[in-house]
Amino acid sequence: MSSKPSVPRPRSRLRVWFEQHLHGLAFSLGRAVRKPWATALTVAVMGVALALPLGLSIVMDNLRHFAGSVQQSREINLFLKLQVDTAAAERLAATLRGRGDVAGVEVRTPAQALEQFRQDSGLGEALDALGENPLPTLLIVTPAGDDDARLVAALRALPEADLVQHDALWRQRLDNWLRFGQRVVQVLAVLLGLGALLVVGNTVRLDIQSRREEIGVLQLLGASDGFIRRPFLYLGIWYGLGAGLVALGLLGAAGLALAGPLAELSASYGSRFALKGLDALHSGMVLVGTVLLGWLGAWLVTGHFLRQTRPTET
């Protein structure tokens, strides 16, 4: 008894769709690898263009962090009159801590202030020759809100107050410069991102031009625009992924080059400030953004080309 030949089961539409995308992914990667110099140049130009706004954004974030970490930028120094003793200063500090616009109050006695001045100035023998401590009690007040002027006015009106030091002008100027710098970073990000978009678009356009006849044959055979466009979209994705890796590599190298000199500079000012780069989450977001940028550039160019070359019905 003869057995009937087995009929192969038809592949599912999902499997066909997956195989087409896998083929487009591998085919586009192969075309990029077969042109190493052109691919490397495109990826390098995009990477440098993307690294510039990212680097400036990191610098601005570090400056903002540094400005916020310097506690003296918010503190108000309240020098009390000489006749105010430590007990009265502690009572005044407790009263001030109860205000809603005060985040904290530190009491620094004349003895503590003299010892700190002795350590900072190195004039121990000269200070010992004075015989008595000429420094007053100091209250270091940290504001809780953004309106420091009202708090400063209230501190100056205290009967125990002798002098109130609070330089808010330079801090306002610093905030204005930081906001201006952030806007500059945003403008540069848009301009350089547009430049990277044009670079990947032009590269994909050249690849499309080299395959014009092949695309024309596929269109005559009835291939859909999605089928023709797919390998070029993946090519743009590969460019974007490579550019993102180059940008992250450049930022990492720049951070390593600046870490040593920055540590020495911070140590000279008695600070432990260290440069903070991109963490894993933000690095992943950068890669996703560059991939989308490469995909968008390829999508715009291929869409324009297909609209121009679509055969007309007779």
TrEMBL record:
Domain FtsX extracellular: start-end pairs: 75-159
Domain spans labelled ABC3 transporter permease C-terminal: 188-302
Keyword Oxidoreductase annotated: no
Biological-process GO terms, alphabetical: cell division
Subcellular location: Cell inner membrane
Signal sequence residues: none
Keyword RNA-binding assigned: no
Gene3D superfamilies registered for this protein in UniProt: 3.30.70.3040
Spans traversing the lipid bilayer: 37-60, 184-204, 237-260, 280-301
Any one annotated GO CC term: cell division site
Pfam families reported for this sequence: FtsX, FtsX_ECD
Record's bilayer topology term: Multi-pass membrane protein
InterPro entries attached to this UniProt entry: ABC3_permease_C, FtsX, FtsX_ECD, FtsX_proteobact-type
Family recorded in the similarity comment: Belongs to the ABC-4 integral membrane protein family. FtsX subfamily.
Oligomer status and interactors: Forms a membrane-associated complex with FtsE.
NCBIfam families, per the entry: FtsX_Gneg (TIGR00439)
Entry function: Part of the ABC transporter FtsEX involved in cellular division.
Name of the protein in question: Cell division protein FtsX
